[in-house]
Amino acid sequence: MPERADRPRIMLAATGSGCGKTTVTCAVLRALVRRGLTVQAFKCGADYIDPMFHSRVTGRGCGSLDSFLLPEGVLRGLFRKNSEGADCSVIEGVMGFYDGLGAAVSGSSYEIAVMTRTPVILILNARGASMSLAAAVKGFKSFRENSGIAGVILNECGENLCSRLKPVLEEETGAEVLGCMPRMEDCSLESRRLGLVMPSTARDLEVIADCLAAQAERSLDLNRILELASHAPRMKDEPSQLAGLDFKPKPFLLAVAKDEAFCFYYRDALNLLEEAGAELIFFSPLNDDTLPAGIHGLYLGGGYQELHAARLSSNISMLGDIRSRVSGGLPTIAECGGFITLCGSIRTEEDTFRMSGVIESKAYTTGHLVRFGYAEMTARRSSVLTDNGRTIRAHEFHYSDSTNNGDGFVISKPKSPGEAWEGIHSSETLHAGFPYVHFCGDPMMAVKFAQACSRFESARGTHVF
Asked: Which CATH homologous superfamily contains domain 252-459?
């Protein structure tokens, strides 16, 4: 008899992108919530948008699991911490199950399933296929001995066809067919990838989620899915991330931009900043007149600032306050869209809009992804986040670029070290650039930033940038 899980969990993975992972995941999440269960969602990889959908569907914050940005022990520890008190955790994979960095499985959903010892349900798009599905399942199951694939869900497949395929697929592959989800045109979430639909603004999302859940109750074997989750092996405890660091947190006030334009944050990274002493004060650069009073640090996260450039540019008092305080030495992290906010302007397809002008740089939209993917960044000097020579891991996801991206770090692709460029405006009080970092990947970044904010408090704003 398998040892019962202290953290019941299941991963919903797929054969590739575009198979409907997020739609099926949202259907399962919402169906389990409607059963009265406390459900914890997780998303594999460097993704900010899908976790926001998961959070809306479950009413509980979604965790991020990224085996490139996070060491294995940290990843497991964050899973345990976030799944505390949940009846079941559902992990959504990224891309295809085995797709990782370059031609490798490192960074893949498979690697995360192995790290967390999580049973896997493989989602296949069954449109226009029948017995070929058996070949796909058999190949995925046998590609690695420890694949963990326990069952499959057929997406875009009617219930009649599923009932006919089920016995054949199970006999051919040894994997249980746990049901199907038919094509549901009115419940598509695909446009989210372009940022055209965000969970905070998507109309009828609650109605869509309930519609998906009702279908999941009809055509998925949710009881069996819960049973598979309940038999996941136990996971070992992991130490606190700040354990062993020579650091005693001191309280400080950290302003965090959060609204329709500023919304790309790792929940666990914000939690770590709180552990390092931060009291988070959320504000809206779009709606508020000024930064919160008495703050000792500022975090401008990313989002789709290009879509809100006109509105942000019109908030002259907020941009002026950002310029004044950041230029005056307020310790600041500005990632991607946050970095654009510190530039002099941004040129979009519609017009050119003035930004805060902290940094002499002009941002502009390109219409395509720029330097997309994982990166390793080596510091060329000590800064508010890291020491000279230290390498930290990051991720880039943006359609804009700028005329001055900074020179504080040498940045390279992990599988292409010869492909390198400069980036990040860095100083003892500023870290601003397109790449996103995850504080949990290197907790010393949170410590360094907390120390800078504490020094700013002690000096009562006398620093000069």
From this structure: Class I glutamine amidotransferase (GATase) domain (3.40.50.880)
Q: Of these residues, 157, 336, 343, 453, which one is catalytic?
A: 336
**For residue range 346-376, what is the model confidence (pLDDT) as tens digits?**
999 889 999 999 999 999 999 888 888 899 9
Query: Which residues belong to CATH 3.40.50.880 in the chain?
Result: 252-459
pLDDT value of residue 184: 85
Number of neighbours of residue 128 by Cβ within 10 angstroms: 7
Q: How far is CA 151 from CA 165, 169, 225, in A?
A: 14, 10, 9
Quote the mean pLDDT of the chain: 91
* Over residues 400-408, mean pLDDT: 96
Is 19 designated active site? no
Fold of 9-230: Rossmann fold (3.40.50)
Q: CA gyration radius for the chain?
A: 23
Cα–Cα separations (whole angstroms), residue 33 to 116, 213, 403: 23, 9, 47
CB-neighbour burial class of residue 242 (10 A; exposed 0-12, middle 13-18, buried 19+): middle
Closest CA to 48 of 191, 188, 193: 193
Whether 83 and 40 have beta carbons less than 8 Å apart is answered as yes
Record the tokens describing residue 31, joined without a space: 């169906």
